[in-house]
Amino acid sequence: QMKKNRPAHTLVALCEPAVTDAVAATLLNHSTTIGLRIVPFEKVELPRETVTLATSLGDVQIKKVTQPDGRHRWKSEHADILSLSRQHGLDYPTVKRQLDLEISRLLESG
């Protein structure tokens, strides 16, 4: 909602600084808006590594990250889970649960 309770829409365009003027011109030329807010921002990323692990269903890539407090966490790669679920004729959630359990055990055992 905008001023005077008018309905509003928000459009967010993420772009490289070098093309900000071109993106702004496109939005102003091809919409009804009369102004834009341009907000620079920074992205903070955790240190990460990609590791491939062998599981009972096949190889799976995981991304391991190190949190600021030194703890580690990981996430299995969506594309690998999808591929293995199709390959084995199993549904995605079942494959993800099985793989996540196996991966947890593999990582705990070193």
Task: Give the helices and strands, then pairings.
Elements: H1 20-29, E1 48-55, E2 58-66, E3 72-76, H2 78-88, H3 92-109
Note the main attributes of this structure.
elongated, 110 residues
How would you portray this structure in words?
The protein is an alpha+beta fold. Helix content is 35%, strand content 20%. The chain has helices at 20-29, 78-88, 92-109; strands at 48-55, 58-66, 72-76. Helix 2 (78-88) packs across helix 3 (92-109). It is elongated. The model has no long low-confidence stretch (mean pLDDT 94).
SSE order in H/E notation?
A: HEEEHH
Cα Rg: 22 Å
Gap between N and C termini, in Å? 53 Å
Q: What proportion strand?
A: 15-25%
Helix content: 25-40%
- Helix run count: 3
On the 0 to 100 scale, the average pLDDT is 94
Find the count of extended strands (DSSP E, 2+ residues).
Answer: 3
Strand order of the largest sheet: 1-2-3
Biggest beta sheet summary? 3 strands, antiparallel
**Low-pLDDT residue spans:** none
Based on secondary structure, the structural category is: alpha+beta
